[in-house]
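Attaching the record inline, Q. Sequence:
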Amino acid sequence: MQHVEIGRENEHSNIEALLAFGFDEGFARAFASLAEPGDLPARIVEVRRGRYSALRADAAGGLVEVEALLSGAFMNRAETGGDFPAVGDWAVLRQAGAAGGGAAGVAEVSGPALITAVLPRRSAFARKAPGETGRDKVEAQVLAANVDSAFIVIAAGRDWNPRRLERYLALAEEAGVRAVVVITKADLAENPEALLEEAASTALGVERALVCAPEGRGLESLAERLAPGKTIVLLGSSGAGKSTLLNALAGRALAPTGEVRADDERGRHTTTHRQLYRLSGGALVIDTPGLREVQLWAEEESVDAVFEEIEERATRCRFRDCRHENEPGCAVRAALEAGDIDLGRYESWRKLRREVAYLDSRSDPAARRAEAERWKAINKSMRGYSKERRSIAGKSRD
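Structure, as predicted:
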């Protein structure tokens, strides 16, 4: 397969427009190893019940959005739901009627587009697919792929739920994605400072922001994460204000918003599918529907990382296999009784650990662990590419 040189002028690499959507040398190499002549690299920007919208370069050097379906070969290879394309994925696109092109060539095409492969993900924000664990097949549902940051959106008022926040943080830890806690509807906060302190004690060491999106208050604290070419996913329950936040960050109406019921401060699902948007400043934002279920798809280590104060005390226990219940010399129980560990945090930690253990018993933990480690290794090895991509892009403009 022909190696793709990003930013070089030749008939097979006119894909510089994809740089703005996160394409780089690493993805180009992965694409070249999977593509056949005439195939195109494309980013999945929308998923609707088995139908996909993908963004690819056109022959003029611009971008075009096309509808795509999964190829039969792809369907046969896919073993679990987590193998299917998600918003944010980079894919190999094959389209009938292609005239010319190469391993990453850009050609004028017609006919139906087919997704033949998904490039290896650098990160994937996943949860256990909805369903009854005791009866249904246990597998992952990937909510967003190739994400740099996750904005965990929780509204002040009745939507505020530290226990649900801990679940999101565990999923972000598992994905290797930097989390930012965004508390929306600041006008509903009776005591904003106390709310931020509670968020700090729940999300230890995690960035926090208190915003009122319609008024634009607090948005400046998110600016650092909105870098060109970086991908952010918005996650939260229905009515938390994700779409309103997206529109405020964009400075215009990109996503529909709905009224919130006065009796319980909850909203309808105005976002019905996952979709990627590009802001005027170049940042990429994935909006998602409100999640009714936030079931874990994580390892025990990811849960422990969210509860640093408990994890640190556990290293002082007399017995290495201490279950932190009634064992003698348990440092965790001692800290709990002394008030150094919050009872609610301790109970939440034990609950999430039990959930992970049961998930392991109903699935293949070794396979899940191997896949998670593979994503993390890829993400680590590719960290230098963002700097390289900016350098290449700068040279192409000179």
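The two ends are 29 Å apart (CA to CA). The first strand starts at residue 40 and ends at 48.

More tomorrow.
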